[in-house]
């Protein structure tokens, strides 16, 4: 089963964050995303034709995050939307972050 078909599971904070090496293994299933901060978070910048398109994509990402119960940091402006994931409770990356990255990629088409 691919990451985009999985659902996020609640993270209780008692699991360790992925190591950078473990996170690298997920990167093949999340094209366009970049590991940031030594593998502490992932981020991708999406390009759009104008402000309204970027805002609409941001809204869709927010709705997805609410359904999955796993929320990103989102910034957007004219022609771009940047989405960043990490799991707050463990101060690093979890499989959930990559599940969401794959789902966001699917939203972008």
Topology of this protein?
Layout: H1 20-27, E1 34-36, E2 41-47, H2 51-68, E3 73-77, E4 80-85, H3 95-108
Antiparallel strand pairs: 1-2, 2-4, 3-4
Helix pairs in contact: 2-3
Overview of this structure, please?
The structure is a single chain. With 109 residues, the protein is α+β, with helices and mostly antiparallel strands. The chain has a single domain (17-108), classed as Transcriptional coactivator/pterin dehydratase (Gyrase A, domain 2). 37% of the residues lie in helices and 19% in strands. The chain has three helices and four strands, in the order αββαββα. It has helices at residues 20-27, 51-68, 95-108; strands spanning 34-36, 41-47, 73-77, 80-85. The chain has a four-stranded antiparallel sheet with strand order 1-2-4-3. A hairpin with a 2-residue loop joins strand 3 (73-77) and strand 4. Helix 2 runs antiparallel to helix 3 (95-108). The protein is globular and about 40 Å long.
Write the CATH fold name: Gyrase A, domain 2
Return the CATH class.
Alpha Beta
Q: What's the shape? A: globular
Straight-line distance between termini? 19 Å
Strand line-up across the major sheet = 1-2-4-3
- As a whole number of angstroms, the C-alpha radius of gyration is 13 Å
Q: Provide the β-strand percentage band.
A: 15-25%
Based on the coordinates given, report the CATH architecture: 2-Layer Sandwich
Report the structural category. Answer: alpha+beta
pLDDT averaged residue by residue: 94
Q: Count every helix, treating DSSP H or I runs of 4 or more residues as helices.
A: 3
Work out the number of β strands.
Answer: 4
Give the proportion of residues in helices. Answer: 25-40%
Report on the biggest sheet: 4 strands, antiparallel
Low-pLDDT parts are none
